[in-house]
Design goal:
alpha/beta, Rossmann fold, seven-stranded mixed beta sheet, 17 helices, binds NADPH dihydro-nicotinamide-adenine-dinucleotide phosphate
């Protein structure tokens, strides 16, 4: 039995049966359950309320056909998803991911994590997630637009500014959000804040692009200060990925005095001992939609190696995992610990495997789980929703100050819960408990729904 508590063990066993083979979803659920065993011990009445059974069953799960026509006139068919996981705290909120690896398990794991993350922000947002196995890489703008329109032709029935508010994620950036928003507006004849991550000319929030990466660094600063008595100043940092989260995490870490020496994409990684030149990375990834290997064409002192996972073999003080789920495994954790890493922050969702997390915690590495450390993005989206409702917009500095506050609070809540439950500094435990407490209280107040 995975859990000491018999009731929790039975709920999990049933979950495995009902979601057979969905390894990412089961991984996320078992991590949360493991953290909540001590809560259940303190509040055994939760069993009678069926809170755990309800928590792991999405309120709604939608799967749909997305047919579209490519530039050569061929008909293509992808699969679309939206999971509306939990609306106890507010309207469903969570991004859309377009990537060939997307399936029901990935969408459910992301939606489940989102429930706790959104609760931690303190803003009124429930949890949801969606996406498709469509791969935008190598597609023309016309193809991406036709795909987005077909995707929205179904999704529009399920979303709304007070119901469910999607945003971007891997493969869904400003271009895709623009096409999705435009089609929603046409279908419903209404201009509302139904999506976040919008362009600034039609209701987007300043700071949204930077929010997740910068927020991660604010969170890491808290971890370093409180748990290690130090700061990012002078630290050597690895950042995996080179997308939205990775780039802005690298920018803020550099601004805070750290030296980022490596970045990656799904093919490989670059190492630049002098500190990665972020103007070059931005140009390659954001302007040209190119590959990270192109960095060495412009910066001759840097090196490129295939196999993105090997980035974790480079000695560093701080590791920021900002690419995708399960990118940092046991072997990588072992190398990082051996080389003296003192802090690991998750910019991506569940980038560390369960074993890797255990190893970091046992080795005394300060470990910031994604649902807390990368919440800056969705917090900014929550602020975008508020601005849209008020028909108002805050300045860049105003939004940044609010996000900084929210990230400090998220750290505080997780740290306080870790102390209250006897494992000071275990932010996995603390963040799961703090997020759960809010969702659970709201669920209990609303009856059996
Ligand atoms: P992007 O699409 O902008 O970038 C993703 C990066 O990760 C790219 O460098 C990509 O490389 C790499 N990557 C993607 N899939 C894989 C894979 N299977 N193996 C190795 N590398 C991979 O996405 P984001 O930066 O927006 O998202 C990154 C992570 O952060 C995700 O886990 C996302 O859920 C999470 N997140 C994002 C938020 C946001 O505000 N954007 C908010 C909170 C969490 P390549 O170009 O080769 O595909």
């Amino acid at each position: 039995m995975l859990f000491e508590n018999e009731y929790l063990g039975n709920v999990y066993e049933n979950l495995e049966k009902r979601n057979f083979g969905e390894k990412e979803f089961l991984q996320a659920a078992s991590e949360v359950f493991a953290s909540l065993e001590c809560v259940l011990k303190r509040y055994p009445a939760l069993e009678k309320e069926g809170v755990f059974e309800r928590l792991v069953e999405p309120e709604r799960f939608i799967q749909f056909r997305v047919p579209w026509v490519d530039d050569s006139g061929n008909i293509r068919v992808n699969r679309g998803f939206r999971v509306e996981f939990n609306s106890a705290v507010g309207p469903y909120k969570g991004g859309l991911r377009f990537h060939p690896t997307v399936n029901a398990s990935v969408i459910k794991f992301l939606g489940f994590e989102q429930v706790f993350k959104n609760a931690l922000t303190g803003l009124p947002m429930g949890g949801g997630k969606g996406g498709s196995d469509f791969n935008p890489k190598g597609k023309s703008d016309g193809e991406v637009m036709r795909f987005c329109q077909s995707f929205m032709a179904e999704l529009f029935r399920h979303i709304g500014p007070n119901t469910d508010v999607p945003a971007g994620d891997i493969g869904v950036g400003a271009r895709e959000i623009g096409y999705l928003f435009g089609y929603y507006k046409k279908l419903t004849n209404s201009f509302t804040g139904v999506l976040t991550g919008k362009g600034l000319s039609y209701g987007g929030s300043l700071f949204r692009t930077q929010a997740t990466g910068y927020g991660l660094c604010y969170y890491v600063q808290n971890m370093l200060k409180i748990l290690k008595g130090t700061s990012l100043e002078g630290k050597t940092v690895l950042v995996s990925g080179s997308g939205n989260v990775a780039i802005y995490a690298a920018v803020k870490a550099t601004e805070l005095g750290a030296k980022v020496v490596a970045m990656s994409d799904s093919n490989g990684y670059i190492y630049d001992k002098d500190g990665v030149r972020l103007d070059v990375v931005k140009n390659i990834k954001l302007q040209r939609r190119g590959r990270i290997r192109e960095y060495v064409d412009e910066v001759k002192t840097a090196t490129y190696k295939d196999n993105f996972k090997d980035i974790w073999a480079i000695p560093c003080d701080v590791a920021l995992a900002c690419a995708t789920q399960n990118e940092l495994d046991e072997k990588s954790a072992e190398l990082l610990i051996k080389n003296g890493v003192c802090c690991v922050g998750e910019g991506a969702n569940m980038p560390s495997t369960a074993n890797a997390v255990d190893m970091f915690l046992k080795a005394g590495v300060a470990f910031g789980p994604g649902k807390a450390a990368n919440a800056g993005g969705v917090a900014c989206s929550g602020l975008e929703m508020s601005q849209n409702s008020m028909r108002y917009s805050w300045t860049f500095d105003e939004v940044e100050a609010k996000i900084k506050d929210i990230m400090n609070n998220i750290f505080e809540k997780g740290y306080a819960a870790s102390k209250e439950y006897g494992e000071p500094g275990n932010l996995v435990l603390g963040s799961n408990i703090a997020g759960f407490s809010k969702v659970c209280e709201a669920m209990l107040a609303q009856g059996i729904v």
